[in-house]
Design brief:
alpha+beta; four-stranded antiparallel sheet; GIY-YIG endonuclease; 4 helices
């Protein structure tokens, strides 16, 4: 995914009106994109990113248009779980209205927490 400067001009150039999708906000450090916020829009990704332009607290964005609200939600959840220690997001992404799906990554974390690995090493010396 390409990074872009978070400016009105670039958002309008890169993102179509009325497109749903997922995005990451952040900055470049040592030639790597550092995510500081993840989000999505179920109705108009362009409008949501332009809101962030007005806030003026991020430098760059990565965007991924999606075919469905469910796909955008899953991507937002994935990157929330992968990068939450570094994010400004304080709460887990909310489910889109009318979508009956749970976060697959919360389910995995719960399963791991409830079923810790057993010690399978052989201590016969």
């Amino acid at each position: 995914m390409d990074t872009h400067p978070l400016t009105r001009h670039r958002v309008r150039e890169v993102v179509s009106k009325g497109q749903s999708g997922f995005y990451r906000l952040g900055y470049i450090l040592d030639e790597r994109f550092q995510t500081t916020y993840v989000g999505r829009s179920d109705t108009c990704l362009r409008r949501r990113l332009l809101d962030h332009v007005r806030e003026r607290w991020q430098e760059r964005f990565i965007v991924r248009p999606t075919l469905s609200r469910k796909e955008a939600y899953r991507l937002e959840c994935l990157f929330y779980h992968l990068e939450r220690a570094e994010l400004g997001n304080k709460i887990h992404p909310g489910k889109p209205a009318g979508i009956e799906t749970e976060c697959p990554y919360c389910k995995q974390e719960t399963a791991i927490a409830n079923n810790p690995p057993t010690n399978t090493t052989n201590n016969a010396d």
